[in-house]
Amino acid sequence: MTASRSVTKRPKYSRKHNPEGAMGLMDHLVEFRNRFVISTIAIVLAMVVGFVVSDAVFDLLRRPVEMLTEERGGRVSINFGNVTTAFDLRLQMALTLGVVIASPVWLYQFWMFLMPGLKKTERRYALGFLGAAIPLFLGGVVLGVVVMPRIVEVMATFAPKQDTVWYEAKMYYSFALTLCVAVGIAFVVPVVLVMLNFAGLLRGKTILKAWRMAVMVSALFSAMATPSADVLSMFLLMIPMILLYFIATGIALVHDRGADRRQRKREAALEDELNTQA
Fold it and tell me: Which residue, among 207, 208, 197, 221, has the nearest Cα to 114 in the 3D structure?
């Protein structure tokens, strides 16, 4: 006699069957896993492209050192001190470039995980998020590329001209690539604040009240990303971040004013309807 067993399957989370977007803890974990896997696959595929174009990136990041070499009569160099350093560095660059190239995918996955409860009419916020976040992220990366040579130049001035400035390859490129990606991510933060406001999770007044903290964080980030002796580079990073924060605050305040006005109209219409029925 064969005993039959009934297997109870866990229902999958679906916005189609769950229009309100209510999710339990396990649903959140499953959602995070799925979006993390998609983002990881996109980054891995983009790493292949990054590996191919890494030579061009090498040349771009090497340019400040070549300029210093001309100024100091050949006393500046990038050195690969290990047998595997060149290959390891190429993989590191491919990963960083993969993160940049795949930014539309992982930014979208981040947004959709952050806002799983959006109604269909509110899904346009995702397009607005991507339309603003991707250019800002890439713009931050470009700004990092622009500022990086200045930082290298300032730091090299502290070395006596009769001595050789020796840069370990992995440390040099790690500094440059980390700087560029960090500035790109910092430029996306104001967009996240706006989208949280549009989703009704954060009021514009709350964002405005934190302006002192925002300025301080921007200053600290810029100070850590640039050497203390290079005040110009620090301000080149800090000022755009602060401007973006206040632009995001203004957009949130305007949105709140319109949302409050629409809410008052709905309440007035409901009150009139109740009075009519009474």
Answer: 197
